[in-house]
Amino acid sequence: MRSTEFWKHEVRTLFERHGGTVTEESPLGGGRSADLRAARGQQVRFVEVETGRSDLLANLAKYAPDVDLVVFCTSSAVADRYREVIGRERPSTRRLTPAELDDVGA
What we know:
By secondary structure, the protein is of the alpha/beta class. It has three helices and five strands; from the N terminus they run H-E-E-E-H-E-H-E. It is globular.
């Protein structure tokens, strides 16, 4: 399995190819940070990279309900495990896997 840092780099590279500006570990306040904050024009999207080893509920709770958030799961197994929780806690949040990497910048 590839590391969180590998996937942050891959997602960052994709956003930058599409003209976005990306900040890693972007401060959210209260000592919390986003894995990635991507901006393109007035549009801002946050990305949490999930390997299955972190506290997903705490990561989701960091964000205001109206924030454009993508949870990038590093495998389909992690995505399957998190499907119900993400759907319940943040129904508008997209959950993507490496097979859907190109969709993260859309």
